[in-house]
């Protein structure tokens, strides 16, 4: 949303004041939270953005109700919610991500002889493949701040799924958190037969210039036809592809 001169008025002290302060402050909060790697106290957000205490809590409440922020009640802090993450992913998906990713995936598929894919995080109710069960989803979650992952999985119900091939071993947050720690250490995520029996996947996150995950590059293969000793090499190829895509669409020079 861009405000032109007609949308603003001068305050008593000569400062430019928006005629739609609620809308502008909502966008300012989103941009501010997006620039932070950790959730923030409401009072801190209000102070840094010079938003009155009487307004900041009302704005955050409405944003929480609509999924744009998550309230981490145990910590009393606020962070970006799934709706905000989806908008960021959708922009990347429909713009540079698609055009830049297509030839890269074709090259990766040709080099590996397997199916290469590009995925974005989806948190809509009813989605068939929850993020914690897929290699792409795990790669994206591992690259996101821990507090935001916790907000996406607040209770046991968040881990339920009727659309997987076999029972998942990840059914509570402590297990997911431990698994994501391993993903961070390796720089890539795996999945073995939980989505489709006999098929495995390896994925690595595509990050923006703030280090936030916007997508994941993955390769899927028939497990019995792909030797275990070749999988580390495949993982490195997937990581390299994800890093190249990060640099291409976001100018991310810190990916490794």
Characterise this structure:
The relative contact order is 0.12. The chain has helices spanning 21-34, 42-49, 53-65, 82-94, 96-112, 135-143, 146-152, 173-186, 231-250; strands spanning 8-10, 16-18, 40-41, 69-72, 77-80, 115-119, 189-192, 199-207, 213-222. A hairpin with a 5-residue loop joins strand 1 (8-10) and strand 2 (16-18). The strands form three sheets. It has a four-stranded antiparallel β-sheet with strand order 6-9-8-7. Strands 3-5-4 form a three-stranded antiparallel β-sheet. The protein starts with 7 loop residues before the first strand and ends in a 6-residue tail after the last helix. It is α+β, with helices and mostly antiparallel strands and 256 residues long. 45% of the residues lie in helices and 17% in strands.
């Amino acid at each position: 949303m861009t405000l032109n001169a007609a949308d603003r008025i001068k305050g008593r002290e000569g400062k430019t004041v928006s005629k739609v302060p609620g809308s502008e402050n909502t966008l300012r909060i989103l941009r501010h939270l997006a620039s932070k790697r950790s959730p923030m106290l409401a009072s801190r957000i209000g102070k840094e953005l010079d938003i009155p205490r009487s307004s900041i809590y009302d704005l955050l409440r409405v944003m929480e109700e609509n999924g744009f922020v998550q309230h981490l009640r145990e910590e009393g802090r606020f962070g970006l919610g799934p709706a905000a993450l989806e908008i960021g992913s959708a922009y990347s998906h429909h713009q540079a991500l698609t055009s830049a990713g297509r030839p890269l995936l074709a090259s990766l598929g040709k080099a590996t002889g397997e199916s290469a894919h590009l995925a974005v995080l989806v948190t809509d109710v009813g989605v068939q493949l929850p993020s914690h069960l897929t290699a792409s989803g795990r790669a994206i979650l591992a690259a996101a701040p821990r507090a935001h992952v916790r907000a996406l999985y607040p209770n046991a119900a968040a881990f339920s799924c009727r659309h997987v091939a076999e029972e998942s071993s990840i059914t509570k947050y402590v297990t997911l958190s431990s698994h994501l720690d391993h993903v961070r250490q390796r720089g890539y995520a795996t999945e073995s037969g939980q989505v489709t029996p006999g098929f495995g996947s390896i994925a690595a996150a595509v990050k923006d210039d703030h280090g936030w995950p916007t997508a994941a590059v993955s390769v899927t293969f028939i497990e019995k036809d792909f030797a275990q000793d070749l999988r580390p090499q495949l993982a490195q190829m997937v990581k390299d592809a994800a890093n190249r895509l990060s640099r291409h669409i976001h100018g991310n020079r810190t990916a490794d």
